[in-house]
Every structure is written in C-alpha cells, then in structure tokens.
C-alpha cells in the first residue's frame, strides 16, 4: 500500500500543473526545479530555496506565476520523499520485530518447562545445570521479599534519625530562648531553704519599673536600627510617633526627561552626588553628614529642621525608596500652615551611576509648626534677641507637564 501511495505522489508531482492554460505541454516537477529523479533531496531543497529567492514577487525580477509553480513542484517532491522515508523506517522496524520474536522464542525454549525437562534428563552436567537454575529461580521469587525487608529497615532507621534530630533541635531552641530571655536554669528537685527564701522575697517596685523601662528602650533600639521598613509610614511610626498621624508622605517616579537638570542647583537648597556602584561613594557613606546638615540648617518652616533629617535617614533603610535605583531623588516639604504655597525642594540627590537616561524619584512630606513647638519657640526667641541668621527656603522642582507623553514632547 505504501508503494502505491509513493507511485501516486510521484505521478502527481509529474503532472501537478494540469490546471494551467490549455494547449501547452507542461514540464514535470523535476524539470521545474531543474533537477533529476536521482538527485538527493538535500540538493533539491537547496535548488528550491535558490529559485524561490530569485522568483519571489518582492524581488525586482520576481514572477508570481513562476514562484507558485516552484512551490507546488517542491511540495510534491517533498511529499514523495517523506513517503519513501517512512516506508524505509517501517521496513527496518519490521525486521527488528522479527528478530525480537525469534529471540523471544529461543529464550522460551530454554527457560520454559520443556527446556527445563530436557536439561534435567541430559546427564550429570545437565543435572548440575538444573540445580543452578532452581537456585536462580528461587532467588527471583524471593527477590521482592528481600527488597521489601531492606526498604522497611531503611524507613525505620530514617524515622529514628529524624526523631533524634527533632529532639536535639527542640532542646537547643529552648536553651537559646532561655539564654536570650535571661531565664534561670532548670532548678533541682530538692531546693535549699536559702534559695527558697531568696526567690520568695518580693522584688521592689522601683527595680521592676527600671527593668520594664530598660526592656522598652532595648525593644525600641532594636526596632529602629536593626530592621528595614516597608514605607515611610512605618518608618515615621518608629522615629516620629507624635507626628505620624498628621504627616503625609507621597512618593512618585517619572522619567528624567521631564526635568530640566540645569535648573536643579538653583531651585533645590542642598544638592549632593553619590555613586551606588563605587564602594566609597554610596549613599550610606554620605547619609550621616547629610542628615546633620539638614538638621542644622535654619529653614523657613521650623518643622523642616526636624523632619528633613528623618527623611534622609529613611532613604537608606526603606528599599522601596532607595536612591540607588534613581538618577535624581528629590525631597520636598509641604507646609500645611500655608496651603496655597507650592512644595519647596529641600534636597536633591544625584546618582552618578546613570549617565543620560534614568528615573527620578520625588518624595513630598507635609508638616506644620504645631508638630515642632520647641523649634518654633527657639525661632521666636532668636527673633526677639535680634540674632541675624540666614533663613533657607527651597524652590519648586523644574518639572515639565507630566501628563504629556514622551513621544509628544519636544526634547
């Protein structure tokens, strides 16, 4: 049947252009591609690609009719080639199955009951062979039992090992917790009268209050210094608990192409540069002096002197607002005492890791004079004493219209 299909495909490849114009003698598929019937299929394929590129309609010398004829001829020859290849594969698999059936019959003749009986009745050598075969057959029967026994032993040993490790880990964890909490060691069953009297004496109330204050201070220090925060709301809850309900911190990101970088030093009061890829020039190396500068500067809004250093420190412990991922980081202050005034730029951080492109990060924190009464009273005292101090106030960030897409902007 496969040979008939092959003949039919080859015949179709020879007369594939029967639907063309009448009265003409049409060439075969081999003649269209310019190859012979004995040409390898790899050469036929190369010839097809060459003619297809030459007669493609998109080429200057292309011919759509000729291109269709070449495609039809190649498809016919490819179908015939695949049919011949599948026929040869089926023939090889049939031969392999034949020899497998022959070998299976031979093994059955050797291992079957008839073969066993013939070997047993063939003398002393056959008798020795029969005993060995019986031993092998017995081993094959008990092999599953041996495997099950070994598996059960392995499971029992592994379970015992897991239980031992669990108990050791639990005891170690309990000892570690006891050491961290300062618990006394496990007491013996027999307690001396002196020990009973020592632990029965009530602790003075002053010492209890002192221990509670020390534990609270240690907890605050651990929460404030040995952790990272999710956002500024969580950071201010630890460092500014009295103003966290009144302040608002807004964060936005936009492309650096919306900013006029030449006007940043004129609009922002403090400008600092760092490089997040150089070891000695990272933000963590400049955050200490930067926070001190922000805290000692006399701003137009007294509350700025309190909140600006906290925001600078928060940039180093809040991964979401880290300056390492932005080219410019702006810190603004919105004075709620004057709602009509625009936010003033306090700090501009430039990351020299980025050359021309990058993102900008804008952090706006709000506040009022009510949140920092000590700074307000100090400012009034300086004014009454007529001390001449320089008041610093930032300007607006030089931003273009953020609602305009970049592709419509004239940069």
From TrEMBL:
Organism per entry: Trypanosoma vivax (strain Y486)
Q: Which SUPFAM superfamilies match?
A: Chaperone J-domain (SSF46565)
Gene3D superfamilies for this protein: DnaJ domain
Ranges for domain J come to: 28-90
For this entry, the protein name equals J domain-containing protein
One Gene Ontology BP term is: ERAD pathway
Q: What are the alphabetically sorted keywords of the record? A: Chaperone, Membrane, Transmembrane, Transmembrane helix
Q: Where are the transmembrane segments?
A: 144-166
What superkingdom does the record give? Eukaryota
GO MF annotation terms: misfolded protein binding; protein-folding chaperone binding
Pfam families assigned to the protein according to its UniProt record, in alphabetical order: DnaJ
* A GO CC annotation given for this chain: endoplasmic reticulum
